[in-house]
Amino acid sequence: MAIAAMIASIRFNDRRNKREAFNGWGNSGKKSKGIKIEPVSEEVLVEIRNKIQRQNRITRIKIMLVIAISILIMTWLLF
């Protein structure tokens, strides 16, 4: 009996069928207009990719430096 009540409660509380996408966003009708996608040139994509790779490389170097310095400090403190 308890399991049937639990399943009925879950079905009653399910709101996926009742809500609309982006309800209350924007000033036009209730239908979602979607996201406008503008075409981007291949050069811009290459620049973005290079910039992200550069940032990741710098982050990795910083992490390695912090690890190396912390290992040096720990060995110095132990001896």
TrEMBL record:
Organismal lineage: Bacteria, Pseudomonadati, Bacteroidota, Flavobacteriia, Flavobacteriales
Superkingdom of the source species: Bacteria
Transmembrane residue ranges: 61-78
Official protein name in the record: Uncharacterized protein
Record key words, sorted: Membrane, Transmembrane, Transmembrane helix
Taxonomic source organism: Aquimarina addita
